[in-house]
Structure formats: structure tokens, C-alpha cells
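Researcher: Let's run the pair from yesterday's discussion. Sequence first, then C-alpha cells, for each.
Model: Starting with the first of the pair.
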Amino acid sequence: MIKKKNKVENGEIKSILSSELKIEGNIFATGKVRIDGEVLGDVSGDFIIFGESSKIKGNVKAKRVILMGSVEGDVEATEVEIKSSAKVKGNLTVKELSIESGASVEGAVKSGKFLEGQSGRPEKK
């Protein structure tokens, strides 16, 4: 089955926060963005790429996340790819989850069919 990508995924990166940048406060980004720096606050948006040098201390909420750096906080997304260089210390709530060998994850994981229904819990039969 061929998965059709939307315009945001195929589009160019709209913003880049370099590794020399440190932000204290929340970030909301539309479109596709890449964060290589440090953020002390929550990050939310459409499609967020966290580079290997990224350090996030806050919660992440997005449609799609590619994580190569570190996050200390909860991650909530439709789709998450955790690469081998990534470190996550927090709970994951995702519809589609991919974790490469070598990645470090500490926290509860809710993924796939466990998110069906409005409550985020499995539906009782």
C-alpha cells in the first residue's frame, strides 16, 4: 500500500531554529519546521523535526514528529518517528509510532488501537 503524503510533509521547511538558539517560552509552528536548538517550554505545530542537537524541556504536541534529539516531557502526536540518536523522558500518546534500535525512551506509551474512542482508552466490547 502506498501512503499518500500531504502538502506539509512534502513541502519545504518553513523555519529552522539553529543549534546556537535557546528559547524560553512556548512555540507554536505551522507548516514544517526544524528545531536544532534548546527550548524550555512547550512545542506544538503541524510537522516538527527535532535535530540531533535539539534539547526540549516541555511537552510536544503535533500532527507529525521526527525526533533525533532529546525531549523531557510528554509527546502527543498522530505520527512519531523516534530515531536511534533520540532520548525521550516522558509519556508518548501517538496513533502511529516508529522507534529505531538504539533510541532511549522512558515513560508510558499509548499507541495504535489503544487510542480508539474519544477518551484515548480502548473501547470496551
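Model: Moving on to the second of the pair.
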Amino acid sequence: MVRLRSWLDDERGATRTGCLFLVLVVVAVVYFGLPIGGMYIRYYRMENEMHTQARFAPSIDNGTIQRRLLQTVDALGLPLEASRRLRIVRTSRPREIVISTTWEETIVLPFYTHVQTFAPEVRERM
């Protein structure tokens, strides 16, 4: 007697379990990776804006630089301490501008809490 094989006869269940495990791992990486990645994206965007303002420093005053950076802090949703600790220093020898700030962000994961400190500093010759 000839028997037709169905696609269910070849399944042992390992493929489905392996696929489910892989999907769970990918979901976990995305779920926990997005907040961590967002922290670093905000850091790099703030540092980039600090570089931009430092390049324009010869033609604008410290008040304008500070106002623009405070707007960036607000737009990025950084903690208030980032705006409080914002420092702009111009030196005469060598002629340069130093812009710096610091802030902390907390990541809460199951069974683990991590506090990351960010301290971007930009030096630009004028």
C-alpha cells in the first residue's frame, strides 16, 4: 500500500523550539537594547551640538552658546543636571574654548540597575 507522507511526519519539534528561543532572544535584545542605545544616542547628539557651538565660538558670545546648548538639553530630554553643570570657558593661551557638562542616567533592568555617567568635553582652538 502506498502512503502519502504529510509535512507533519518530518517534524520533530526541535525546529519550532529553536525558532521560539531565537525569537525570544531577539525580543529581549531589542527590549533591553533600545533604552541603552537611546542613552548613547542622546550623548552623541549632545556632544555633536557642543562641537558645532565650539566651531562658531569666535563669532558668538558665551550667552548665545549657553542658550543654544540649553535648548539642546531640553530637546534631547536630558536630566536637569546637564544644564546646571554646563560650563563654557575661553582661554587666551592657547586661544581655545572648552565646553563641558556631566549628567547621569539610570537604566533599570530586571534584577539589575545601572547608573551611567556621561561627561562630554569639547576643546576647539579659535
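Researcher: Give me one sentence on the second I can quote.
Model: The mean pLDDT is 88.
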